Amino acid sequence: MPSQSTLLSRAVHGTPIPFEAASAPSRRQRATGGEMATGRLEITNGGFEGMQYDLIRDEVVIGRSPTTDITLLYEGISREHALVLFDEEARGYVIEDLASTHGTKLNGKRIRSAALAEGDQFQIGRTLFRFVLFKSD
Predict the structure, then answer these.
(1) Average pLDDT over the chain, rounded to whole?
(2) Which residue segment(s) compose the domain that 44 sits in?
């Protein structure tokens, strides 16, 4: 089992590397008529507690593979474990389990796909994330 210090390969000395901004307007800008509904994921436990990831992309893959947007190097996490995405129709964020072996829990319940609301907590492996939603013009 990897040490806590190897939990996130995208972390450098405790500083998260922000997601790259897309050059085209995101779906969330188009769906909300220009108002930017932006999500953030915050780690709420372990050695990386307090780290934050702004959801700049419309889709963010979380998993163990080095090609994922958020990489968790921990047993019990699939290569591509879960997807957080902006759903145009619902005008909000959704989390989807990507057929992972050990599942994804939202507010303590195992899910396949579910809408995310302000303050929701989801668990991938032993890592807990809190979803924060904010809007800016």
Answers:
(1) 80
(2) 4-11+26-136
